[in-house]
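User: Structure please.
Assistant: Input sequence and predicted structure:
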Amino acid sequence: MNSREILESFEGRMREFIDGENFKKCIQCGICGGSCPFGFYTDFTPRKIITATRAEIVNEVIESNAPWLCTSCNLCTSRCPSKIPITDALIPVLRELAMNYSHPPDELGQALTNIHRMGNSFGESNKKRTKWSEGIGFPVKVLKKGEHVEYLFIVDDFGSFDLRGQEITKAIAKLFRILGIDFGILGEKEKSIGDHVRLAGEFGLFEEIAKSNINEFKNYSFEKIITMDPHAFNSLKNEYPKFNFSKDVIHYTQLIDERLNEIKKILHPLNYTVTYHDPCYLGRKNGIYDAPRRIIESIPGIKFVEMYRNRENSFCCGGGGGGIWYDSYIKKYVKVRPAEERVLEASKTGANVLLVTCPIDAIMFEDAIKVTGLEGKLKVMDISELLLESIGKGV
């Protein structure tokens, strides 16, 4: 396919998205490139990508590192004065074209193949989805068809199969148990929710995943879906309704925040100085900033300090949009990964604990702490783990 045909394909796909044609309104201000975690390393910032469309050289963009050096953090989109849907349309469309006409990172291809074949990005048997619940000390309800619970707990891939993610899943489930929350999981019937698939430009696979999951959900009775992964939360809340899905979806911190008066009664002092990282898809994408902070501030003895970049200006961990799948590809182009930059920023606050509410953040930051020599100085904890420790001090 020649450059003109690729441009026409790009423009045609962009027209299919809400506000997609806004890319033609780009005023070349450069805010996007200045906001981007990879702005210094990418061959084409969003501004330059749009310049390339005007010069009819989109083919050069899809052959470059630009489609893949994007964390889908949504910072450029949130700041764009022309309201161009960079994160949800521009970059995924380029990635779709790159997968069709160029060569995507090998690790990305493997993750997508695993999801298509096995229902999860790890390529594991879905029978292992409940492994996190082993040794938890109480039975975790795996729903049978027609069975009712108040909350369907969607764990997603990293909470199910990654060892660090499993620790966080256990902590959240224990909090649910302590609060008497009626919840259940799908076990081996759960499949990847697919947010990274969508952001990677595999729109057809994402639609297939979403429709399959929605059909599976119909086999059970529940009031709300509760998630631990902000990416799963985002897709279920904002993308699945496009396929006639209408259930309420919440992140676990929202539920804990609602029950804070109950949990405060069993909390005991901890001697930590903590800072909190706003996940891109909990904070900037979905506006949930205050619930995690109220939880942190409810724990006695805790000193809470903010990082310079917080709330809507939070700096990405680098794992979103499939980035966690092809970290080795990113390392070829980047001297300091976003996660490394972020843990150094956290350390400068004087905090000895970096709090997160996303399993991918925990995974990325713990690796970054090793690389930056901060082991023993900065510890990564999910808010659920901090709460459990505070509760345990009184046991």
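Residues 107-258 form one domain.
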